[in-house]
Amino acid sequence: MIQCKRVYEGVDAADGRRVLVDHLWPRGCSKAALQLHDWLREVAPSAALRQQFHKRPQAFAEFREAYRRELAGHPEHWQGLLELAGQGTLTLLFAARDGAHNNARVLAEFLEEELDRRGAPSSPVCYAGEEGSGG
After folding, report:
1. Average pLDDT, the chain
2. How far apart are CA 20 and CA 15, in angstroms?
3. How far is 107 from 55, CA to CA, in rounded Å?
4. Other beta carbons within 10 Å of 44
5. Strands 2-6, 90-94: parallel, antiparallel or unpaired by DSSP?
6. To pair with 132 at 20 to 30 A between CA atoms, which of 37, 67, 104, 120?
7. What is the C-alpha separation between 118 and 135, in angstroms, rounded?
8. Per DSSP, what are the bridge partners of residue 17?
9. Which helix (H) or strand (E) is 114 found in, with range?
10. What is the pLDDT of residues 16-75, one digit of tens each?
């Protein structure tokens, strides 16, 4: 399970693995208080994309698509997160005020889709070699 949580919210036992996915360290948070397992700066949006979204937060759909393109181009930055999500709860930590429109939400959605894609194959089982299969 993948969930998102603002860094300023309290730590909960249900958080599982806590990973900060922002490029910049959150203001006013000490490293000890944040209690995270990892900080993956490289999985955050590029500086140019981050700045563009900061100037135009109403353009979330554009940000979302551009960030997803960045993620698709660098699987080495997020593949480890898939492994963590497969082992239990993964909490993506972010500092943005808007809990619904931020990079962690886009990343969580992207990772969930990757997990679904890598799940059990959806194609029918091959019956080649069985009687009446014609092959």
Report:
1. 88
2. 12
3. 20
4. 22
5. parallel
6. 120
7. 29
8. 90
9. helix 103-118
10. 999 999 999 999 998 888 889 999 999 999 999 999 998 998 999 999 999 999 999 999
